[in-house]
Amino acid sequence: MRRRTGTAYGFLAPYLLIFAVFWVWPIVYSFWLSFLATRQLPWTFRPAMTWGRLAVDPAFVNALKNTLLILVVQVPIMIALATVLAVLLNSSLLRARGLMRFAFFAPVVVGEVAYAAVFRLMFTADRGIVNKVLEAAGLPSVDWFSNPTAAMALIIMAVTWRWAGYNAIIILSGLQSIPDDVYEAATLDRVTPLRQFLFITLPLLRPVILFCVVLSVIGTMQLFTEPFLITNRGGPGGATETLGLFLYRQGFTVLNFGYASAVAYTIAALAVVISLLNLWLGRERA
Amino acid sequence: MAGVTLRGVRKAFGPLQTIHGVDLDVGDGEFVVFVGPSGCGKSTLLRMIAGLEDVTAGEIAIGGRVVNDVEPADRGTAMVFQSYALYPHMTVGQNLSFGLRMNGNPTADTERRVAEAARILQIGPLLDRRPKALSGGQRQRVAIGRAIVREPEVFLFDEPLSNLDAELRVQMRVEIARLHGELGTTMVYVTHDQTEAMTLADRIVVLRAGRVEQVGRPLDLYDDPVNQFVAGFIGSPRMNFLAAESLGGGRVRLTGQGGVEIALPVGRGLAAGQKAVLGIRPEHFEAAGQGDCDLALVVDVAEHLGATSYLYANTKAGEPVVVQAGAARSAQAGGRVAVSIPAGRAYLFDPDGLRLA
Amino acid sequence: MTSRSSRRFWRQVGLHAVLGPLALIWLLPLWMMLVFSTMPENGIFSPDIELLPKGQFWANFQELQAETGFLRTLFVSVVVALVTTGLSILLTSMAGWALVRYRFRGRWLVTALIFGTLTLPYFVVVIPQFIMVARDMGLQSTWFALIVPPLFNSLGVLFMRQAFSMMPGELFDAAQVEGVKEWQIFTRVALPMAKPTLAALAIILFLASWNNYLWPLLIASDPTMMTAPVALGTLIGFTRVSWAAIMTGAVLLTLPMIVVFIFLQRFFMSGITAGAVK
């Protein structure tokens, strides 16, 4: 290939312009911001007011704890569910395959606001459909929005509903790249379907599942709309406040840009560390 | 029309040099074939002539004009690619006319050229089809047609037949030879297949590892290879090589044969005890006793093709030897045969592979 | 033989016994969205479990439109999504093309920079983006603010780069030898061949823009420039508008995407899995 730097940058220019102005510069700028006290003008260099404040701010610690809780509980549940769904949806025994896939994949296209509205309405404590069903089944109704544990469970359910299908699609594509003859050989060797799943499917899916885990970790670290809209700004009393919501509050309600930037970089650092940790735990052991 | 001249042409990718100074003159109207094993640089050299690769050093001239800095489209060349490179979303007609249309060539002239190319290649009925609906041979014709419509001074072919099956390859080979006869245009053709090279070329350029090993007419290369590499590359099945040792005075002993000796005048230059390699083509063996040096062989596999037979055999020392034996129908795997080397047909190479003559 | 086919039968029963109810639960929120949007407000909170649609959709929607001017916000959403998708496809496919087709100074650096942002949380850039657009440029609640900053995405480049690199390079060389200009090779040869990829990318980008919430929430608070999700979000948790009316908005936001999903499922799938294949 001939070296054609000019032509190449001609094609790249519009994209790189947007990239430089709206991404590269902001990445640098917010790092600088994270050291500035921005509560009042003029902004001054006072890291103690941003990075220093993180460790001692109970609201931040609370948001961090909630986010990590969601991470530890929701991500494994969702990935396990998505894996099982992918395997079942891939089964040759399945009837009404199109409808089944639609049921689990459709949430992928539903906007956060629309589904937040429906979940909020369905889980309304007083005569919401979920509580009506619980009562009809003879179970106690749950006060989804004022009980901290229930509110957290609701967020986890909502996120799982929205994203399980998305991950299942990715895992399904991984499944379909496993050649059939591997299973045919296993069947001839009298390996039961369950064992085939455990000893053939799962190991071969490992890279895809890891990819899903990393995506989910990054997504969870930025969780914002669900606690913002479903549990009414992280309620009750901050029980579902996440890092994303905390950042939104600091950045765009209080307009404390410096502190919010420090939170943003904390989120990014945590996302990287936790993703790397996952990759390390799930690495191929020689 | 124009010839192509290469002067000290080099190509380097960073520190890695792949073409080490090639000098070559392709005459006007000549059909020159670059041949060599994969990785020898033959395609790179062709792409440099086409202008698809930069020339690191040296000069390439087409029709007397140095084209190092000329855009590919302005070099007066047209290229046929190994994968055919047909645009899958265009019909055959659109494929043929695309380049002309994009360059604002008058419509009437474009149509004339497409019709002419279609006539030469007999692809008129295919003009409205897409490449997907064509057979391999038809695609190949379209790819050639796309080169023809440019009315180039030089045609460049990059392994154009390697994606075809054996039968079509022979057929297209004949077509390309006919095309060259009809158009009389300079053609530079790259292949790894020495049969294609032998049948098509006015002159063959044998390349190895970015260097020209030998340039010459096909039969000259066959009869008169300058080194062991060319000797082994030209001719099919390839020439047999047997380890030898000079006894001095033009006598050579085949070391793998337990002391069989043969007198080869060309071996006079070798001091006694010096190692050498004796080369003999499969088709040049004679019946035992009729040549100058008998070999006892054990047949491994015998292929009887009817008109001729190939015996894949081993010497006592386990050196593989292929014998083309017109009359050896009776030879069977596991059997023993004796053949003889006529001294006049044997080649002798020194330990560096250079032919002793 | 009987035991074999009966084992297969029971396996099939088991599969559907697990997947069937789960699928119903998964469908429930979408179904209830539709049902709620057609109910009178007192129907939603009646003591009975109502699972079938009624006929009040139009009345509920009129309430939403009267209170919020929802049609205007839908219009803003459609324009923003269409323009963003179109421009973003153009920019990312040009960039992807450059990365595949040319060897150039800085190629490694550009590639690393673009894909380095793939996993970067959006929060790291949203604050400066907001400061720049709202304060420094003074462009709050404008088309520019809604469309231009979200144009950058590395997934599109990744996607297009993959599509172009699957095409045989000889095809572009052939066009080049024929004297076709690079821009024409891009628009007349490469892009037409990448149609399936372009379709998948368009769908994914349109969906992302259509559902985008945080950025429009921050940057376009003026009622005339609000996008539909933002407008709907302002209603949740307040009693200004009835739940049934909110649900009509949710249905209008969701239904078009569901329809697109049903008919263009293939492109959706390849769009979603594109990032997973390296």
From TrEMBL, chain B:
Top-tier EC class: hydrolase
One GO CC term, this protein: ATP-binding cassette (ABC) transporter complex, substrate-binding subunit-containing
Pfam families (alphabetical): ABC_tran (PF00005), OB_MalK (PF17912)
A GO molecular function held by the record: ATP binding
Keywords per UniProt: ATP-binding, Cell inner membrane, Cell membrane, Hydrolase, Membrane, Nucleotide-binding, Transport
EC number(s) from the headed UniProt entry: 3.6.3.19
Domain ABC transporter: from-to ranges: 4-234
Superkingdom of origin: Bacteria
SUPFAM superfamilies attached to this UniProt entry: MOP-like (SSF50331), P-loop containing nucleoside triphosphate hydrolases (SSF52540)
PANTHER family: MALTODEXTRIN IMPORT ATP-BINDING PROTEIN MSMX, MALTOSE_MALTODEXTRIN IMPORT ATP-BINDING PROTEIN MALK
Similarity-based family: Belongs to the ABC transporter superfamily.
Protein name: Maltose/maltodextrin transport ATP-binding protein MalK
From TrEMBL, chain C:
PROSITE patterns found in the cross-reference section: ABC_TM1 (PS50928)
Keywords from the named record: Cell membrane, Membrane, Transmembrane, Transmembrane helix, Transport
Transmembrane segments: 12-36, 74-100, 112-131, 143-160, 198-221, 241-264
Compartment list: Cell membrane
Source organism superkingdom: Bacteria
CDD domains, sorted: TM_PBP2 (cd06261)
Topology within the bilayer: Multi-pass membrane protein
Domain called ABC transmembrane type-1: residue spans: 74-264
GO cellular component: a single term: plasma membrane
Alphabetized InterPro entries for the sequence: MetI-like (IPR000515), MetI-like_sf (IPR035906)
One example of a Gene Ontology biological process annotation: transmembrane transport
Family named by the database record: Belongs to the binding-protein-dependent transport system permease family.
Protein name: ABC transporter sugar permease
Species for this entry: Rubellimicrobium mesophilum DSM 19309
